[in-house]
Specification:
By secondary structure, this protein is mostly helical. Helix content is about 75%, strand content about 0%. It comes from Streptomyces phyllanthi.
Length: about 190
């Protein structure tokens, strides 16, 4: 009798099930797309981030049900912070992070997007670790200069200069690879008076 009561109380009720189905239906596609960008196209890592975000949403169902307009930004914040945690953990073991190549995705996901993520991942892999780290935090994780400085334990001025140098290096790398839109700029000589 006791074990029957425990199994009954452990099952989610209909409201929880409806909440989980609704939040997944409304936000899973956008979250997975966002997570893929944060993981350089690694679908498995992106799915792990999204799954963990939904588990956390389920744990906070009462709070998110009370404020449904906050569910989407809350989920995106959770995915972003989880990606930061994964990035930190991998930076301790850089070989696990830097040797990864993006996983090719099916054609239905968008050939152009897949090629872009692959080209960017290859270009980032050729950068110095400090440049890559700043670009990932500033542009892929969308952190401010101050947040990036705090995450990397470096001064804000260093974040700005590394970011500037990294963007220039990325442009040069993409131009050298023949990526359209990144051709070297030609300097036009000034006409003499």
């Amino acid at each position: 009798m006791q074990s029957q009561q425990n199994t009954t109380t452990c099952r989610p009720d209909d409201r929880e099930r409806a909440f989980a189905q609704d939040i997944y239906r409304r936000h899973s596609g956008a979250l997975l797309s966002f997570a893929r960008k944060l993981t350089f196209g690694d679908t498995h890592a992106a799915e792990d981030l999204v799954q963990e975000a939904f588990v956390r949403a389920w744990r906070h169902a009462e709070r998110l049900t009370a404020a449904p307009d906050l569910a989407r930004p809350w989920l995106f914040t959770v995915v972003r912070r989880l990606a930061i945690d994964v990035h930190r953990a991998r930076s301790i073991r850089p070989e696990a992070y830097h040797d990864r190549q993006p996983e090719p995705r099916p054609v239905s996901d968008g050939v152009e997007e897949t090629l872009t993520s692959h080209v960017m991942a290859r270009a980032l892999a050729r950068m110095t670790p400090s440049q890559r780290e700043v670009l990932v935090h500033r542009y892929l994780l969308d952190l401010s200069v101050q947040e990036t400085a705090s995450e990397l334990n470096i001064p804000t001025g260093t974040v700005k200069s590394r970011s500037s140098h990294a963007v220039r290096a990325l442009r040069r790398t993409l131009a050298a690879d023949g990526v359209p839109g990144f051709e070297p700029r030609r300097r036009v000589p000034l006409a003499s008076p």
